Amino acid sequence: MKAPRLHILMLLLMAACPGTACAQEATPAAVVEEVVPTTQIDTQLRINKTTLLESPNRKNQVDAAILLLTSENPDARRILLDVLAMTDNPNARAAVCEAVSLTRTSPQPVKNKEDFIKPLIGVITSEQDYSIVKLAAEATLVFSYSQVQLELEKAVADPALSVTARTNVIYAMRRHPDKQAVIKLFGLMDGSEPQIVEAARSALASVGIVVSSDPAIRRQSLLELQQRSAESFLRERVIRQETRMRENETDRENLWKKYLTDKTALYNLQGTEAAKVKFLNTSLADRDARVKIWALERLEEMRVGTSKAKFSELEPTLIPLITDPSRDVRRNTARLLASLWEVNVAKPLLDQLNVETDELVRREILVALREACYASLTTPGPKLPEEIRAGTLGWAVKFLEDADPEKARVGAEVIGKLLEPNGLKPEDVDGYLTHLADRYAGLNPANDVSLRVDLLSAMAGLCSSESKCRDLAAKHFGSLFEQALAEKADPVRLIAIDGLFNASGDKPSIIRRLWKILGSDPLPAIRLKLVELAGDAGGAQELDWLAEKLGVAGEGDASWQAILKIFRRSPSTLLAEWAAKIKSPPIAGRLTPEQQISFFDMVRQRAQAETKPELLREAQTNLADLYIVAGRLKEASECLRILAAGATGQELAKYQGQLLQVYLGLGSTEETCGLLVNYLSTKGLDLTPEGVVAKSIEAYLSNPAAVNSQALLDALQQIKVSDLQAAQAWQALLNGWTSRYAKAKKTGEIDSPHN
């Protein structure tokens, strides 16, 4: 049997046998009682009676009833019994019933509780308000069923009572976890009054006992029930009740899901964002926590989406939710308020944080305060009072010093973020930095790795260039970063690198130092971190070791990006120096054509900006070759046209030959013919079959994948050559191409039926 079930069973056994428990109560020890004047007693009695009868506050009425119930004055008991007999003051009746019920768990014994049996059953049979009937039935549970059995069973059989009164008694009977009560309910099923029979059947069903309409089957069920022990009966009842509770909970959850689904559909039908905000505003004021949470979730969706809705009009409804009775509502509200700067959230958040008891809600509120304070410190507009930041930092220190690692992490994050902007006195900043350093120093290097990483991260952030207390933080934390660098825990060493880098005033020097210490570290993440830092702040001295990493799996791409970053902030002389290295076999073999293109394109742009024609031409020449290798023929043609425009002699012929190959590759007949017209008009042409022009056109025409070969031949036939010798050589080439192409085409047509 599960522990919760045993607990429930024991409670039921105690409820069924209170006489046993009472018998074990020790006789109160004799005490010397203070003599209280009779007049004072009478006055207090009168006040309690008046409060019970007339107070509009239910809690005050119940408190007065409890005072009367525990009073030694016989008149106090008579007042309570008289109130239970009243039919014209239901609120007072209800208060007495509640007070009697509370004695089940009260450590203070009540004498002669049996005085209340008949009056409580009188309430059950006479009260018109069913909620008060239920309170009276609940109050009878302070007695065992055997104590109230006679009065209940006499009342349920009393023909002078109305059917409603007797069904109320049946309700009271089924509230008692006692086998005899169930046996009596079985007996009522054999009665002649349909309403009583139905009430008994419903009462049995409510405790998980399904009763057959067949009398014979009922008798057999009753016989089996009578043969069970009290413990067995109670165990089965607990099991049935647990099953029923689970079923009820499932049904309740399904109803809630349907309700919220319908509510979402109605929300989505709202035509404008303003209408949606108004709809959510109503839901935020709902009595039920689930509806409020649903509305908060919709607001969060609006916030992170493309909505431009103004949430300021929700302030009167939204901000009070930070004090809502539901911790989930408070938690969700704090989470949302952390992102809404247009609402005045800081003071209400701090006020609630000062009284909040739930740890999870506290955490969310502190995070929300962190964001509100940071936004106030770093954005234009009205500023929060300094005491808000001070109060938030005070709580951050409490969190930081807590034994819970998660709370300490949040505290460190808050301190790190709120010290970053300016505005605090140096001595105050020094105090918070000391708290961080002391908390870190007190951690166990072997067991507190995660928290140490979190604290080092906060420290590293305070040493960054964005931090207004960078110099002071570097003095506090520099030695801690040095120590952490030598530790075995990889995450600690990794964040220590950031800390040392941020704290250093000479970034290139610290990068070179870190490379000497950790350049061969077995952890790839650390090696990549050094590469990243070299890209961020390294210089020419880092290029050689970065180049060695090109082509290394997992590091090559990052190293190349770091090299490009260094080049972007370096003088053009360094780029010119490295242009030759990039083309050299050791480095070129480790780079893809696209990577080389990215470098030479950078060189081209720099040469254009600084008017360096030689460097520009070198970059364009390399780009043209690389574009061809990469298949980027359009870009290649643009580079080659520029190069050809400024070339003569053999250099021009080279570029024209490359351009011809590019135009053919692009399938551009017009540009091919235009280039050939210019080429054929020059002197000293090489129009032999082994020349660049002939070989380029021959390769294109013989390629099975060539597009528009016939169109190219037709266009070539139209080119006119003025020089007689060149014209004869050109015509010879054309005849050869036409003959071979026609023969190849004819062969293809003959073979095609067999393919």
Assign an overall shape: elongated
Mean pLDDT: 87
* Low-pLDDT segments, ≥5 res: 1-36, 750-755
Question: What would you report as the Rg, rounded to the nearest angstrom?
Answer: 46 Å
Question: Given the structure, what is the number of helices?
Answer: 40
What features would you describe in this structure?
This protein is an all-alpha fold and 755 residues long. Among the domains are: 7-21 and 37-243, Leucine-rich Repeat Variant (Alpha Horseshoe), CATH 1.25.10; 270-384; 651-749. It is built from 40 helices and no strands. It starts with a helix and ends with a helix. Mean pLDDT is 87; it is low at 1-36 and 750-755.
Write the layout of secondary structure elements.
Blueprint: H1 3-16, H2 18-23, H3 38-54, H4 58-69, H5 74-85, H6 90-102, H7 117-126, H8 130-139, H9 145-156, H10 163-174, H11 179-188, H12 194-206, H13 215-227, H14 230-268, H15 273-284, H16 289-304, H17 315-318, H18 327-337, H19 346-355, H20 359-378, H21 386-400, H22 405-419, H23 426-441, H24 449-462, H25 470-485, H26 490-503, H27 507-518, H28 524-537, H29 543-548, H30 556-568, H31 572-583, H32 585-588, H33 593-609, H34 613-630, H35 633-645, H36 649-666, H37 669-680, H38 692-702, H39 709-717, H40 724-751
Helix pairs in contact: 1-14, 3-4, 4-6, 5-6, 6-8, 7-8, 7-9, 7-10, 8-10, 9-10, 10-12, 11-12, 15-16, 16-18, 18-20, 19-20, 20-21, 20-22, 21-22, 22-24, 23-24, 23-25, 24-25, 24-26, 25-26, 26-27, 26-28, 27-28, 28-30, 31-33, 33-34, 34-35, 35-36, 36-37, 36-38, 39-40
